[in-house]
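Entry 12.
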Amino acid sequence: MRAIEKLADEAQRNGNINFSADCHVIFISFIRKHLNDENLFDKTTIKQINQDLDRISIDDKPYTEDDLYDRLRERIIDWYLMNKTPIHHSLNSKLNC
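Predicted 3D structure (tokens):
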């Protein structure tokens, strides 16, 4: 949830002025990795997740409406409700936010 909040904040508050590969792209990859789970979501839902992530990945065209972020937040909540095993935190030395 923190990753999508950071992405939404950067786009909506900052217009992606600070969007970077060593921060925001890592968050998008993290979300994509965990939400693209065919054991939890059907192919249509996974396709929508990827389309939403692709759209918010465009650094020079910040997406400032709430709908994509809200939809991704809902999928994160769905993921949690179906998979309550915490994701072990591992330090990412490339993350610089």
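Annotation: The chain has a mean pLDDT of 94. The helical segments are 2-14, 24-35, 43-56, 67-82.
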